[in-house]
Amino acid sequence: MESATGERIEANRSRRLIELAERFGAHNYHPLDVVIERGEGIWVWDADGRKYVDCLSAYSALNQGHCHPAIIQALVEQSRHLTLTSRAFHNAEMGPFLEELCDYVGMEMALPMNTGAEAVETAIKTVRKWGYTYKGVPDDKAEIIVCEGNFHGRTTTIVGFSSDTQYQEGFGPFTPGFTIIPYGDAEALRKAITPHTVGFLVEPIQGEGGVMVPPAGYLRETKQICETQRVLFVADEIQTAFGRTGRRLCCDHEDVAPDVIILGKALGGGVYPVSAVCASREILGVFRPGDHGSTFGGNPLAAAVARAALRVLREERLAERAAELGPYFMEQLRAIESPVVEQVRGKGLLVGVVIKEEAGPARPFCEALREEGILAKETHGQVIRFAPPLVIGREEIDWILARVRKVLPQ
Ligand SMILES: *Cc1c(COP(=O)(O)O)cnc(C)c1O
Predict the structure, then answer these.
(1) 304: Cβ–Cβ under 8 A, 6 or more apart, which residues?
(2) Which of 39, 288, 290, 340 pairs as cysteine with 359 (C-beta 3.0–4.6 A)?
(3) 259 catalytically annotated
(4) Quick check: 65 and 318 in contact, CB under 8 A?
(5) Are strands 260-263 and 232-236 parallel, antiparallel or unpaired?
(6) How high is the pLDDT of residue 351?
(7) Ligand 1 centre and the CA of 118: distance in Å?
(8) CB of 1 closer than 8 Å to CB of 48
(9) Is the CB of 244 under 6 A from ligand 1?
(10) DSSP category for residue 266
């Protein structure tokens, strides 16, 4: 049997592997029916030999593409001589990694963790402690303002301030100290700030929320409000940083310098979980030995991988590539003029195609795309997210477009 993209299809291995995962794994995900076995750049192959373009990039953790040779080389070399020390000792990779990361984001200090949710938790602890230390907020009274439709991870504290009931149901009680305001509404922030507010935690584009792009000027205006009220502006750039939206950070589009930047995903080059919180010396200076930590945070393998991941972003000018190809991709998607499409929105190569309610949910379209050799995942019911690895070229964008045209009725 031959697949649409011409590979020989072995047998029905995928089916068997899915059954195993379903039987032995908790059902906390609803993946598409595809078992990926190999990846290279923007391409992946399933267990039956079919080839696809990865248009999700592990929620933008794979900006540098699958198995980037330079990142794999760093992983292999580092793993031969040292992988883990814990923070009880120094390791030779961590210092250079933190210096290069601070240089990349233009910050004075960084605190390394592993997953995005851990970095968000770290940022929450940071701004609370900053509020008690510098703003004179009374003990246990610190408030953090967050936005409706947010996604910051899955720990109990973080889902406690989600506005999505599915993220919360059955997991309470939750951590107090969070106020939810509408996203994209700067006035709502101004009104919500109290003398106890220590931070405003915001995604510059809400990726999981359905690629929600706030109105132009929103980031600049909210940053300004935070400055005048002495509230820390905390940007969760876990999904939007590292070139995804066509700039180094998404906040760069409005020349906004956050007080605290939360990073993850592509910091590990799609190879290893690496996250970090970056801020000024005053802000991250609130931590004293013993206040916070992680056994694996800042480990030498993570540090070596992240250094390579940052080098690839620079050397291959991936932000510039997203800035060039993103607008072309969106323009071509809009030109399809399908009656089922309500809107095409996004920035750089973080693009959402919104399916009209009356055309049903986005999922069947993702399944049809999969049949055509494109892996994309719906988010929030109606949105197909297109976020291919940034190592993609124009011809490959055209390859995707030709197939999207087949799937979206015109
Ligand atoms: C993915 C994501 C997180 C959580 O990261 P994990 O590594 O899955 O814990 C937090 N914030 C944003 C904006 C994300 O996209």
Answers:
(1) 74, 75, 77, 78, 93, 97
(2) 340
(3) no
(4) no
(5) parallel
(6) 98
(7) 9
(8) no
(9) no
(10) G
For the Cβ of 237 lying below 6 angstroms from any atom of ligand 1, the answer is no
Q: Is 365 a catalytic residue?
A: no
Model confidence pLDDT, tens digit, residues 312-339? 999 999 999 999 999 999 999 999 999 9
- Structural contact between residues 326 and 347, judged by C-beta atoms closer than 8 angstroms: yes
Catalytic member of 236, 242, 296, 329: 236
The reply to whether 291 belongs to the active site is no
Both tokens of 255, joined, read 């020349």
DSSP 134: I
Q: Which domains does the chain have, with CATH numbers?
A: 116-263 (3.40.640.10)
> Which secondary structure element, helix H or strand E, spans residue 342, and what is its range?
strand 341-347
Alpha-carbon gap, residue 77 to 139, rounded angstroms? 47
Q: Which of 97, 151, 242, 296 is catalytic?
A: 151
Tokens of 130: 């900053």
Structure tokens at 20: 């195993």
Bridge-based pairing state of the strands 197-202 and 232-236: parallel
Q: Distances in Å between the alpha carbon of 7 and those of 43, 48, 395, 402, 407? A: 13, 9, 20, 19, 21
Going by DSSP bridges, is the β-strand pair 350-355/341-347 parallel, antiparallel, or unpaired? Answer: antiparallel
Instruction: Give the mean pLDDT of the chain.
Output: 96
Amino acid at 232: L
Q: Measuring CA to CA, which residue among 57, 59, 68, 36 is closest to residue 388?
A: 57
Cα 179 to Cα 242: distance, rounded to the nearest angstrom:
29
Question: How many CB atoms lie under 10 A from the CB of residue 119?
Answer: 29
Q: Whose CA is nearest to atom 15 of ligand 1?
A: 239
pTM: 0.96
CA–CA dist 131, 137 (Å, integer): 6
